[in-house]
Amino acid sequence: MSEVSRRTHVGRRSFLKMAALGTTAGVIGIGANSLTRQADKSEIAKPYPGSKMVKSICSICSVGCGVIGEVVDGVWVRQEVAQDHPVSAGGHCCKGSDVIDMVRSHCRVKYPMVKQNGKWKRISYEEAFDQIATQLKKYRDKNPEQVMFLGSAKDSNEQSYYISKFAAMFGTNNLDHQARI
User: What are the TM regions of this chain, as residue ranges (predicted)?
Assistant: First the structure.
């Protein structure tokens, strides 16, 4: 390497530091006022006119934290943590706080669908149950160990017992639940 190229050579770590510094300087230079605006007091107090607040319990796991859902015309549009709830005491886990995004997602599946010829087609619940039963029977006949059953932390002891009995009747010991936070 010549003396000139050695002086102009920038290592990967140095480049990343300079890029981060340049990005930070650019963001600070733009200023927050040009990107956002201050919400007025009426927007903060009631962002959805005509909405009602409904106390409920988060159903993601078995803890049962308190939530206050904001509902407009029967649609859940926003949620807050119930500060006075005896279980959660004003707290939320990452699952419970993110559930509103899952519910409002544009790609959420709302009814049974099957892919035919590369396109998704809506089917009835009866068709879906029949297809699932047929496929489960094929798996059981071929090798029941290729199937796994998952319970939920919301299941009662009795429900968990029935799931374990069903898995045993199916012919597999592959059984688990989702109580991992």
Answer: none
Tell me the backbone φ, ψ of residue 93, rounded to 5 degrees: -85, 175
Give the pTM: 0.50
**Pairing state between β 52-57 and 66-72:** antiparallel
For the chain, the three-class secondary structure string (H helix, E strand, C coil) is CCHHHHHHCCCHHHHHHHHHHHHHHHHHHHCHHHHCCCCCHHHHHCCCCCCEEEEEECCCCCCCCEEEEEEECCEEEEEEECCCCCCCCCCCCHHHHHHHHHHHCCCCCCCCEEEECCEEEECCHHHHHHHHHHHHHHHHHHCHHHCCEECCCCCCHHHHHHHHHHHHHHCCCCEECCCCC
Give Dmax over CA atoms of the chain in angstroms: 78
Could you give the CA distance from residue 53 to residue 153 in angstroms, rounded to a whole number? Answer: 27
Contact 95, 181 (CB under 8 A): yes
pLDDT in the model for residue 179 = 61
pLDDT of residue 65 exceeding 50, the answer is: yes
Q: Decide: 79 and 56 in contact? Cβ < 8 Å.
A: no
Indicate if the pLDDT at residue 27 is higher than 80. Answer: no
Domains contained in the chain, CATH given: 3-35 (no CATH), 48-104 (2.20.25.90), 113-176 (no CATH)
Give Cα 83 distance to the centre of its chain: 23
